[in-house]
Design a protein that fits this description.
six-stranded mixed sheet; ABC_Ni/Peptide_Import; binds adenosine-5'-triphosphate; Rossmann fold; 10 helices
């Protein structure tokens, strides 16, 4: 890891339930530099809530506590609502699963990619257009001018997700959080988008937090993985060391990867008696 960007210490997120407070994130600590880190775990393990906490986007009912939540030298626990607004888009970008829900169907792509420039920087209309076209090109969209003046419905799912990534990167955030960024896409496109995110992270010198339930897939693109289970980080390691994971849970997730040897057989289910 190089220069630290994000530092999280003892982060706890709870919701009030009839049975008392329900801790969905239970005292986790981690740091991210200019690197790709995957946060992996099964559904409900607390991955999305962790990502949202870093963006100041937790549901109102959530109770968040942290000994330290610091991004780029800034204490996030003390941030005002307008401070969060400044941070989102300019400092930290968020990419969600499905561009259908992130892109506004009523506005042309160009306007949506430029939008963050209006909020965070002062550029002329011509400069905004040039920057948007440049970014549409960078995310690998063919014919950026045509895409710029298209509506989202004219784009395929993969193109929509590339446009979404362009909109998030236009302000050159230092950290990008991608929460299941490819779940809505078919397998071939998933690998293309993950390859793109990985190479943009290196090219733009960002950090990337890649949230996913699919350990074997994201570990191919991540420098490090953090395996989350029931609100805690069960294990954290370099992707290259996954074959030697200590935790039985990580080993089970890792062993669940399909390979020529397991093709056609039942994949192991963790905790299942056999
Ligand atoms: N508004 C809420 N009120 C109460 N509990 C909530 C609320 N939002 C989320 N939760 C609970 O928080 C837990 C963690 O959710 P989170 O979305 O972080 O899981 P996840 O690991 O990202 O899983 P998934 O991949 O299914 O999104 C879940 O058990 C969920 O039911």
């Amino acid at each position: 890891m190089t220069e630290g960007l994000l530092s999280v210490e003892d982060l706890t997120i709870s919701f009030l339930s009839e049975a008392g407070p329900l801790r969905v994130v239970d005292g986790i600590s981690f740091a991210i530099g200019r690197e790709v880190v995957a946060l992996v775990g099964e559904s409900g393990s607390g991955k999305s809530m962790t990502g949202r906490a870093i963006m100041g986007l937790l549901p109102r009912q959530a109770d968040i506590r942290a000994r330290r939540l610091e991004f780029d030298g800034q204490d996030l626990t003390a941030l005002s609502p307008s401070g969060w607004n400044r941070l989102r888009g300019a400092g930290i970008g968020l990419i969600l699963q499905d561009p259908k829900y992130s892109l506004n169907p009523a506005h042309r792509i160009g306007r949506q990619v430029e939008e963050a420039l209006l909020l965070h920087a002062r550029f002329s209309a011509g400069e905004r257009r040039d920057r948007a076209l440049d970014m549409l090109d960078k995310v690998g969209l063919p014919d950026p001018k045509r895409v710029y003046s298209s509506y989202p419905a004219a784009l395929s799912g993969g193109m929509g997700q590339r446009a979404m990534i362009a909109a998030m990167l236009i302000n050159r955030p230092k950290l990008l959080i991608a929460d299941e960024p490819t779940s809505a896409l078919d397998r071939g496109l998933q690998d293309q988008i993950l390859t793109l995110l990985r190479s943009l992270t290196e090219e733009l010198g960002m950090g990337l937090l890649l949230i996913s339930h699919d350990l074997q897939q994201v570990s191919r693109y991540a420098d490090r993985v953090m395996v989350m289970r029931r609100g805690r980080i069960e294990e954290e390691m370099a992707s290259a060391d996954l074959a030697n994971a200590k935790s039985a849970y990580t080993r089970a997730l890792w062993a669940a990867r399909p390979s020529a040897a397991t093709y056609g057989t039942h994949l192991p289910v963790y905790g299942e008696e056999r």
